[in-house]
Design goal:
3 domains, nine-stranded antiparallel sheet, six-stranded mixed sheet, Dna Ligase, domain 1, Rossmann fold
Length: 400
């Protein structure tokens, strides 16, 4: 684990010599992972009295230049995570694949961890996550656990279904749709969950924050529209268009998930609404999430601001909308790998109430998340129109 220190003009102490509680009495907060979620979390941190630390294996990651202190290390390695966190006051994650054994030891030694390692253990393993829903009587699609390809081949009676790798999947990776026997070859030869496919009307996400006192703030639900080819969020609309009765169900189910995890933090609960308006939990993320990016401009307290309020012990923020919003993900175009070029950016920047977020990733590749664009408007049709326009005209390519 290599410590690379970023210092501003007012702070001349090295990482190793700063005492706990910070060089100027400010809380010392660590983020495991240095991608775009960490980047936006650090942008919100600039509004608070907090000293920030990031650990990531890439010193050129999107978060590296925005934190006070950067450490090059492996977030899955026990020693790296433990040594990074042992001098901090609090620690959070921007991706689930971190070493939770090290987090448990740090928690025992007094470091505040958001979310608690116990919640992270449940969520990072899709097998344990589905079992948690079942044991907690939280509505979710039927499922079968398969340990290998051989067990998967015996489940033809359960099709159509979705096969999800127990550990290691993210952004659509580790997920395969198995509609017929011929699709079994796409399945995983390792511990996984085979989930019964649900005939759905909508995919919904709800962000919920909970602090150490148990106070809760819930954001309005959003409609998620997915790119079926990449299995990535294509665009989303906020607030979701749901009947009042269905909205109550969505919020009640999402609250049951968060309460069951018994952990402070911020959580994204993804749900299905089926053709009969029944609500099922799909997955939960124990962190800031793509489905909450619109809150930076569209809500009074963004998801990133809210997490700092939770971790630093401030009152929870206001989750109400300022204006309805849409989000378009900017992903690397097919056939391009290399230094990123944003074709059409000038034209998109001319649009009113459009906010472009480039994540600072130097290299693009097909399907890689490179940024997002938020659109604000009182009119739903305007949001959809502009989202489609942006999707078709702002393309992430490369010189090579």
């Amino acid at each position: 684990m290599e410590k690379l220190v970023h210092l501003d003009q007012t702070n001349t102490n090295s990482y190793s010599s700063i005492t706990k509680n910070g060089s100027q009495g400010q809380p010392r907060a660590g983020i495991l992972g240095g991608g775009q979620l960490g980047r936006m979390l650090l942008q919100a941190a600039a509004n608070y009295p907090v000293e920030t630390f990031v650990m990531e294996n890439d010193p050129d990651c999107p978060s590296a230049h925005l934190c006070h202190h950067f450490t090059k290390g492996d977030i899955t390695n026990f020693n790296d995570v433990y040594n990074f966190g042992k001098g901090l006051d609090l620690l959070t994650i921007e991706i689930e694949s971190v070493n939770e054994d090290a987090l448990e030891k740090l928690q025992q030694e007094g470091v505040k961890i958001y979310p608690h390692p116990s919640a992270l253990r449940i969520i990072k393993d899709k097998i344990l996550q589905k079992q948690f829903y079942k044991d907690s009587e939280i509505p979710t699609s039927d499922f079968i656990i398969t340990q290998n390809k051989e067990e998967l081949l015996q489940q033809e009676h359960f099709l159509p279904a979705v096969h999800k790798l127990g550990k290691g999947g993210y952004d659509g990776k580790g997920v395969q749709i198995i509609e017929t026997k011929a699709d079994f070859e796409k399945g995983f030869n390792g511990p996984a969950v085979l989930e019964k496919m649900v005939a759905i009307k909508k995919e919904i996400a709800v962000m919920i924050a909970i602090n150490d006192k148990g106070d809760i703030a819930i954001y309005p639900a959003v409609d998620m529209v997915f790119d079926q080819k990449l299995n990535l969020l294509d665009y989303q609309l906020s607030p979701a268009e749901l009947s009042e009765k269905t909205m109550w169900k969505v919020e009640a189910v999402a609250m049951k998930v968060v309460n069951g995890l018994k952990s402070p933090g911020i959580f994204a609960v993804e749900l299905f609404v089926d053709l009969n308006d029944q609500v099922f939990v799909n997955e939960t993320a124990p962190r800031v999430h793509n489905s909450g990016h619109h809150t930076i401009e569209a809500n009074y307290s963004s998801q990133f601001d809210m997490l700092w309020r939770v971790m630093l012990g401030y009152p929870l923020g206001c989750t109400e909308h300022i204006l309805p919003a849409a989000i378009v993900n900017l992903v690397g175009a097919e056939g391009f790998s290399g230094p990123a070029v944003y074709e059409g950016l000038d034209e998109i920047m001319k649009l009113e109430n459009v906010f472009v977020h480039i994540y600072g990733k130097k290299q693009t590749k097909p399907g890689r998340k490179m940024g997002h664009v938020t659109i604000l408007s009182k009119e739903k049709q305007e949001l959809i129109h502009q989202a489609t326009r942006i999707k078709n005209n702002l393309i992430v390519k490369s010189h090579s």
